[in-house]
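Cross-check.
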Amino acid sequence: MTTTVFVHGNPMTAAVWEGLLVELGRDDVRLLSPPGFGAPLPGGFDVSPDGYRDWLVGELECLDGPVDLVGHDWGGAHVVRVAMDRPDLLRSWVSDAVGVFHPDYAWHELAVTWQTPGAGERQLAGLADRDAWAARLAGRGMPLAVAERVIDGYDPSMAHAILALYRAAAQPAMARAGRRLERAAARPGLAVLATGDPVVGTLAQRREAAARAGAQVAVLEGVGHWWPARYPVRTAQVLRRFWASLDTVTTTVGAPAVRSRSVRAVPGGSSTARWRSPVRSGRTPWPARVPGSTRTPVAP
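Predicted model, tokenized:
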């Protein structure tokens, strides 16, 4: 049986998925919170795009069956990295962040602030006013009830993770990672294109990156960055339609995809933390690396 795995981004916890998961009404769902973002940040963890890719690979390797992997924001970027480097772990992938791998992608204003020593620390210090932060998230489209739960997950570990991740991802890091974007076409992909989202690339960049990744495109007209939380009904419809299109595809875990009706296919994975409504913390443990592990290394 296929397992559906959701990975959120920054500055978030798994609470962003709550409304969507209620709409989907499925019991085969796992929520993964990246270390530092609603989950503990272990000492020595590599807070970088490569480090989070490796973390997600390790989680997916723990699953017994094929995975439909869904990511939002930085979670979407981690999903694309896995699709590029370890497609054998997937049946399919969904991401709204494929545009950040376009060679001409430029980081948004707040990201540039976080990437700037001193300025980033000062900006995050201002988040101590949680009511103001919740109001800001709500003003940008996140439902207030979700925003209030998200800010409950903010702590010094998240602040550290935000700064370290964005500084490690300063260009040309993402453009360099995007050189392998065509590899993501090994599995069926869906690029969610929320036309009102200004932070994950221009519309043209996102379409071009999706084409390189061999992904279908789902356009959410007039929808902003927080599409999973603000429009759960529409999002559920998009996901169901995409997953239904995979039913004609035959796959064998660990083997190359078998194409059918020009739709690509997929294999196995590993994860933690089942969805139980309602989402409270979204916390999932980071798996310790086992000496002598037989996990397949990912490409650098």
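Strands lie at 3-7, 29-32, 67-71, 92-95, 189-194, 216-220. Residues 3-248 form a domain with the Rossmann fold fold (CATH 3.40.50.1820). Passed to J.P. for a second look.
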